[in-house]
Design brief:
The complex is a heterodimer of chains A (237) and B (129). Helix content of chain A is 20%, strand content 26%. By secondary structure, chain A is α+β, with helices and mostly antiparallel strands. Chain A folds into two domains: 30 residues; 189 residues, Lipocalin, CATH 2.40.128. Chain B is mainly beta and 129 residues long. Chain B has one domain: Nucleic acid-binding proteins (OB fold (Dihydrolipoamide Acetyltransferase, E2P), Beta Barrel), CATH 2.40.50. Classes of the chains: A alpha+beta (237), B mainly beta (129). Chains A and B meet through loops of A and helix 2 of B.
Chain lengths: 237, 129
């Protein structure tokens, strides 16, 4: 009888301690049970401006004959960015000129570029690439977390973008694999691998540091009052 | 180009080469990045607009002839980060501008540094990396 009389108190005390755990577990389950383990990369970031990606590589990429011929021909005058076309996924990070913001949810990892206010959507919900991908300016991107690193796979890229300002072009067979490794709250180690059998004899990679910026994404429009193209000149024949 | 250089080049020999990458939406192949010059003149327009804030100024040569220069900078957002505002420069301001001139010979350049009449300096600042 004595024990029964204490039962409500014990139950209440148990609930006091257990209920928060149950709620916490429920919340984690509702968010795919990955929220707590997934690194948080939300914020505004920038990589060192790298207008010639071969400088980061240390030498020219392993060109196919076709790739070498294209690089010899490409002129900054024809840079798609000069024409105010979209910057493309990797160039937006390593030579985006301006910072970018990462907005992260359990199912998508978005990169908002200040440059022309373009964006990337990287699906992290476990989906695969579509079987037939129509080339687009930023391609089709899927990502998965492995510990502290988001691995992003991108295909279906429009061959009109360049990899940098120096004129490293690519085909629509370009395949990007990026690794966003969280070093600490203010630093990301970004490694990108370029694979394009039409332009390169083998995949090649560069690694750049990405640093958190104490700023916000600001207004930008390439065509608002463009005055530069008129005096740009060709540098290659 | 040579004419403008002769007319407007001011103490170029004393200028320290400033290695500022052109963080514009285009490359810098059209500018003479190795030979910055300084011009002095009167601002006729300060266009606080994308993709690049433009500064127009009248510069007198040694014969009194006025030449309208067009000076390209960066986007308003990038200039704000470097300490500028839409009111930093006003029409009729007397300014000195260090710039890299266009290889085409046109009175066009890309700004490295602007100095107002009161001595205040406005430049470009790269992002924190």
């Amino acid at each position: 009888m004595k024990n029964f009389s204490r039962a409500p108190t014990v139950c209440a005390a148990s609930l006091f301690f257990v209920l928060p755990l149950v709620i916490a577990c429920g919340n984690r389950a509702a968010s795919g049970n990955t929220q707590a383990a997934t690194p948080d990369l939300n914020g505004v970031w920038s990589a060192p401006f790298t207008p010639d990606i071969s400088k980061a590589l240390g030498h020219q990429p392993p060109f196919t004959p076709y790739g070498a011929a294209r690089f010899a021909k490409e002129d900054e005058f024809d840079d798609p960015l000069t024409k105010c076309l979209p910057i493309g996924p990797a160039r937006g990070i390593q030579a985006g000129i301006m910072p970018f913001q990462i907005v992260q949810t359990p199912s998508v990892f978005t990169i908002l570029f200040e440059n022309q206010h373009t964006f990337r959507i990287i699906h992290t919900d476990g989906r695969s690439h579509p079987k037939d991908v129509d080339p687009t300016w930023f391609g089709d991107s899927i990502g998965k977390w492995e510990g502290d690193t988001l691995i992003v796979d991108t295909v279906g890229l429009d061959d009109r973008t360049w990899l940098d300002t120096a004129g490293h072009a690519h085909s629509d067979q370009l395949h990007l694999v990026e690794r966003f490794q969280k070093v600490d709250n203010n630093n990301i180690k970004w490694t990108v691998t370029f694979e394009d059998p039409k332009f390169f004899t083998e995949p090649w990679s560069v690694t750049l540091p990405i640093a958190r910026q104490n700023t916000e994404i600001m207004s930008y429009s390439c065509e608002e009052n463009e005055k530069d193209r008129a005096h740009l000149r060709r540098t290659k024949k | 180009m040579k004419k403008y250089r002769l007319n407007f080049l001011i103490s170029v020999a004393t200028l320290v080469l400033i290695s500022v990458p052109v963080l514009a939406h285009h490359g810098n192949a059209s500018y003479d990045n190795d030979h910055p010059i300084m011009i002095k003149g009167t601002v006729t327009e300060f266009a606080w607009s994308n993709p690049h804030v433009q500064i127009y100024l009248d510069v007198k040569d040694d014969k009194g002839k006025v030449v309208r220069w067009s000076v390209e900078t960066l986007s308003p957002g990038k200039l704000v980060r470097a300490g500028w505002s839409k009111d930093s420069v006003k029409v009729a301001d007397q300014v000195s501008i260090t710039l890299i001139p266009a290889k085409s010979g046109a009175p066009v350049g890309f700004l490295h540094k602007l100095v107002l009449a009161n001595g205040e300096e406005l430049g470009l600042r790269e992002l924190e990396n």
